[in-house]
Prior knowledge:
The protein is mainly beta.
Amino acid sequence: MKIDSMERLTTARMGRRSLLKRAGAIGLALPAAGMLLNACGGNDDEARADAPADKGNDVAQAAGVQEVTITAFDLGFRPSEVTVEAGKAVRLTFINEGAMEHDIELVGLKATGLKVIEEAGQLSDRANDLLVEKTAESIPYAAAGGGNDKMVIEFLPEEAGQYEMICVVPGHAAAGMRGTFTVGSATAAVAEADEGHEHTETAAQASSGEPYEAPQLPNPIVPPPVGNRGPELVKVELEAREVVGKVDDGVAFEFWTFDGTVPGTMIRVRQDDTVELTLKNATDSRMTHNIDLHAVTGPGGGADATIVAPGESATIRFKARHPGVYVYHCAVAPIPHHISAGMYGLIVVEPEGGLPEVDHEFYVMQGDLYFEGGRNDLGLRQFSMDKMLDERPDYVVFNGSVGAITGERAFKAKVGDTVRIFFGVGGPNLVSSFHVIGEIFDRVMQEGATEWHTNIQTTLVPAGGATIVEFTCEVPGSYKMVDHSLGRLGKGAVGIIEVEGDENPEIFEVVSSPHA
């Protein structure tokens, strides 16, 4: 349908909620299949996402109007570089082949005669509001729903230059949905843009190179056991924080976290508690965040209701009906980016009467990290969507970084002590074969189920899953926690439990060894 004005897009819609908040909701308002395609790059879109975006022009001339077609896929633009002539009108056809809604803004480009020639078939409130806002600011903007939906706009660029084109759904530009739109000579535009400007790097833009020193994030604390109490109202507050932290020697990354740790704060309640959870997003965050708790029965595990832009907060209540140990994570699109960046944790729901008393409780989660560049590159690294989609992690780590549970940060116990480990896998992709070298698990709550299994050597924990393992320390020494897919040792998946005490020759004795 063709229209000549913006009469159907009223500014009354602007006051409903903040634009950033709506932006974060896009991936969650779609059907689950669309979300998973967006997160994992399935079917035809996967093939497109895996291939490099075309960089050539897609510009045709028609009766004094330059026809430009830009296609969005999950997560990129094709072509990613466009050049048009200065002084001529542009008719931009924006096609979305992705599984979810995408949009495009020509950042900083001022235009006259800006109008919608053909409306998209399906748009969210967020996109409609932005269309009104950007049109009022004379900045070219288009949006389209998934599945080959499209929008056509027309405008006359006011000035020659090189402009950035981005998808403004939070996280999508950082994940690769960006390119350049040049009006006039590309060479002249670049020179003009560079003249008189100093270039600075943000955490999201910095490239690898020289060693980058950053503090190692602290390990989260295990809250005390619930004990033998009745059900009650438990209030929990979490804050989404974006912090630069150490990954490895000379390697750092901007983690997205709950409460500044990876994994996030452990939530601990008992069966039939009513949990009132407030999620805040730090005022200095750049991204929209939310929380999906696998212990919640309700839409999105609470994700739909907890979408918060920087400086915002949201509160939900839920009944902890099922005992076990459950993963929680951020579910703002692109979901695997937020998870890989550190936004995951555990919620423990103890059964009536509580868990049996032990001497030590430890909290460990495994995650996979994907960076641009080579695996051994140093510097402040950037997330790689391509590697994530290919499931080629640079690092597989416990508690966010190499060495997070080694050296001075190793767990400590004594001979005769009983140990309980709450272990989960944030992912976003890899499954873990959790094993403690030199120990046999006395009891395992496989996948957090109510039933315990005994005498387990290695327990399989899926991405987005968790378990509890228990054992008694009987022989002193250094015990390695590993993912028994042992190639991942070289990528960081190891932690240490140091057990002190007297030797126990009835259980283990070295009879003869050249290394004793």
